[in-house]
Amino acid sequence: MVAAYEAQGWARFPYDPALARWVSAALPFAQAALVDPAMAQWHVCEGTWFVGVDALPNDKDGAVGESGPLQGAVRDFLNTHYGAIPPLHQAQVSVTWPGYPRPRDGESEAAFRYRQKRDAAHVD
Known about the structure:
mainly alpha
């Protein structure tokens, strides 16, 4: 995995039970964020993408609800290769629905094409 990361700049991690437990505990908070009126501005692209910046109420260790700190192979990998992770800020929740991608309000045609052809300019 390290070789793939160094060659490609990314790596795919296998299923991680520790991360799956965290996701199970965080899921109700993510689902609540999707319908929270305070998060309405994050429904973009004609309602096909929820950007959800700072959508989870996690603490500096990634704990949300009863999840405990964010742990697992990815965090171990980051700690090993980059040192201790600084305190985490609130997590983003990104959801797309059928019909995505659609243009964002005010987005130029060039920017929209870039998002379409470049994995929305990033891959999580």
